[in-house]
Amino acid sequence: MANKQKQMLAVWGSPGSGKTVTAVKLAAELSKKKKNVVVVLCDNTAPMLPALVKSHKLPEASVGGVLTAPGLTQELILKNLIPFDKNPYVSLLGYKAEENLYTYAEYGKERAVDMLVLLRHIADYVIVDCTSALTGSILSTAALEVADDVLRVCGCDLKAVSYFASYLPLIEDHKFKPEKHIKALSNTRPYQGGGEYENSFGGVKHRLPYLPAVEEQAATLRLMEPLSGKEAKAYDPVIAAIVGEVFGDGQ
Ligand SMILES: Nc1ncnc2c1ncn2[C@@H]1O[C@H](COP(=O)(O)OP(=O)(O)OP(=O)(O)O)[C@@H](O)[C@H]1O
Ligand SMILES: [Mg+2]
């Protein structure tokens, strides 16, 4: 059991820290193994599908329908997966345009867990982009509990320090294993004094730099495209190191 292949990573952290961008970049890196990756986008306040995929490529599909349908089947999940641009290995499962917290009936933790279990059968790898506000997303809380690992994305700002002071007590329970989280400092600008923030987060293992090219990719729906030059050199090895730590480097 100790060597069981890890398959599911939850990406969670402070608001605006780069959880979604990091989740997508991790998926792109994993797809180089020529294995299927599903990115689950939990944001039910600002649906992320329209912020990641050109609208004319978005079919009628939503994770909200999967979580609240009377019955849950693999077929239902497959029907709601959206291909991510031209990458044949990466697909998305998220809320669609104009949806909000009240679009669907409530669902329970059991349904969220069942969906994540089925996703393990459907995909080689699953990355869950959790909401910062766990209290508003049962799916995010379930993912924190059942994922093989959690990447805790720590924004390099005082808001992040404040957020963790408020939210970490909510996941103290041993079922969340917060001490096992893999911590990454994210969106780090040179003036931000990363060292001080690292200390306040109890040390971090990975440092994702702030790069205008990443910001531009996100703003222009091109996150699936590779970075190049100096920026690739600064960013890609960090993403590769996280993938290596969680999923191993092998095929
Ligand atoms: N490494 C980076 N370099 C430059 N910009 C980044 C980087 N990571 C994220 N960003 C930018 O920071 C902003 C927030 O990123 P993102 O949406 O991924 O954060 P989030 O943690 O998912 O936010 P939310 O809490 O709203 O879900 C976006 O504008 C994104 O383009
Ligand atoms: Mg996000």
Structural account:
InterPro entries: AAA_dom, P-loop_NTPase. Pfam families: AAA_31. It comes from Eisenbergiella tayi. With 251 residues, the chain is an alpha/beta fold. The protein has a single domain, classed as 3-Layer(aba) Sandwich (Rossmann fold), CATH 3.40.50.300. Helix content is 38%, strand content 18%. The protein is built from ten helices and eight strands. It has helices at residues 19-31, 49-52, 63-68, 74-79, 109-122, 138-146, 158-167, 194-200, 212-219, 229-247, and strands spanning 8-13, 37-41, 82-84, 87-94, 125-129, 149-155, 182-188, 206-209. The protein has an eight-stranded mixed β-sheet, with helices on both faces. α7 links the parallel β6 and β7 (182-188). The protein is globular and about 50 Å long. The mean pLDDT is 94. Magnesium ion is lined by residues 19-20, 43, 129.
